[in-house]
Amino acid sequence: LRSGPLAGRRILVSAGGTREPIDPVRFLGNRSSGKQGAALARAALAAGAEVTFVAAHLDVAPPEGADLVRVDSALELRDAMVERAPDADVIVMAAAVADFRPAEQHASKIKKRDDTADPVITLVRNPDILAELVQRRNAAGRPQLIVGFAAETGDAGASVLDYARDKLERKGCELLVLNEVGTDRVFGRDENSVTILARDGSEPEHAEGSKDEVAAAVIRRVTRELEAQQT
Ligand code: C5P
Questions:
Q1: How far apart (Å, rounded) are the C-alpha atoms in residues 177 and 186?
Q2: Is position 149 annotated in a ligand binding site?
Q3: With a cut of 0.95, is the ipTM above it?
């Protein structure tokens, strides 16, 4: 049996960027490296948790010791999360889920031919997985802590915080980890700077440093929330 403050807890972590298929060889993707998500999974493992890691596209190795589930698209990620959520004490949605996917996936490679018009890719919205997981948790009345992420541009000034607080309310999760993105500020880098917001209205908490240090701070906060739930 594992030991540590999260011993006996099951944590479901999603990470990486989804890839939305256009045809058998092409996709729409994003710049998420999966580093922060992998660091969160390692921090949870180090704290003694049992970790299921649902990985979309990663630029890094998946965490050793986690139960690994590989997915590609947002729809696959959604199915993987919905299937495993009932067993989790904590869900961390660190994946960069594409907001849109091509409306249709071509069965064969789209050809470039001089005699045809340039192709047009119509996009449709992907489901909001985080919001759905919260709804399902609420409907089932499960004691489960759900952590969302928000990547916003701009500095963490008052307006960004207000925006994040709004998102926290809208999504209905307990914790929201706000990080600032912008040209090469976060994606693929080893450093991160985040603000952890809680729905209980407590003071936002700032954490910065390596993605491992940020992950440790988020996991410490999760541990505190779980302990508070028990009392
Ligand atoms: O709405 P926004 O994309 O900013 O929210 C970010 C949070 O929501 C992240 O935790 C991300 O994993 C999650 N998300 C999701 N499904 C989507 C889009 C985002 O679960 N379709």
A1: 13
A2: yes
A3: yes
